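Here is one chain, start to finish.
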Amino acid sequence: MPDHALWGARGELAGPEQVDAYLQRLQLDPAAIRARPCDLALLGDLQLAHMLAVPFENLAVHMAEDTLTSEGDDGPLVWRDGPGVACDVPSAFETIVTKRRGGYCFSLNACFSALLRALGFKLSEYGARVFANRNQAPEEAGYSWTPISHMVLLVDLPEGPWLVDVGFGGGSATSPVSLRGSERVSSLSPGEEFLIRTELLPGGMREEVGGLPGYTLVRFWTVDGQEIASPCYHVSPTPLRPADFKALNFYNSHCPDAPFTCQIVAYRLQSDGSRITLHWAPPRPAADNNASFDAPLPQLPAKQRIPVDQNAKLVVRKGVVGAVQKSDDVPVTSRALLSVLRRDFGFLPPRS
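Its structure:
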């Protein structure tokens, strides 16, 4: 039995035409890219171009395909009315390149990995646990980790392995980060730096036997003269296969208590390093208003209609943790949300 019969074959782009279309989606010149060697400089240019051009978003969880391609309406939004985010490469390519939308880690990094392989890079896919107390110092907030629910890429270069991630909604590094480096990597977002620590899962159960070190991506920034270091995620030490990510993706798109089924999110990096964010989640009960960041979000049954008096927040922030530059309310209706997604996140106009 061939290996892929059990584990699933890695997806590939369907020939040079798709590679060129993908590069054009990233606003890159295919001929110029093909003429360059597969080195760190090219890898960094591809990563940044992807993060600038392709948004992180989970609208396919909450909107049906015919809604996403329409003008929408002003009636109540039907919650969890979509098919979910597809993570196989053909479906992800169709969404990202043909439909000019986005996705989350399992679709964005799966499709990007196919592009990198088509250009000649060698890499593997890994799973990661996200730090739940996001943008907080663990010395104060403690360590709290999600299940393995994120996907990253480790790319093999002559200088060693490098972490690349174009699909982290919490704001990952905007350039490759060395697994062996001791120097921090600057971000496009001013004042943010990243470093990878090789270590056992911080705050994990020390009585576990046979645990292997993984890789913690840490973000650094300064507030009022004090430096803060907060983990983004911890990469497990063993590469995963397509069948593994298929199961993890099902959890993210369909389980009622998964983060992406409990909220609407869209993020996009901008050329000045700022980030534009669209977000709505069901209001917490009054008794839960002081719940911690990692407390479960309120759950709504699938197909429930959202009251029309609800508003999402559209925020422009200087980086992930910088000052808010702009904040607007957006009605939680399909028409209002799609209008913003087309104006600020690059979604295609409604299909005629």
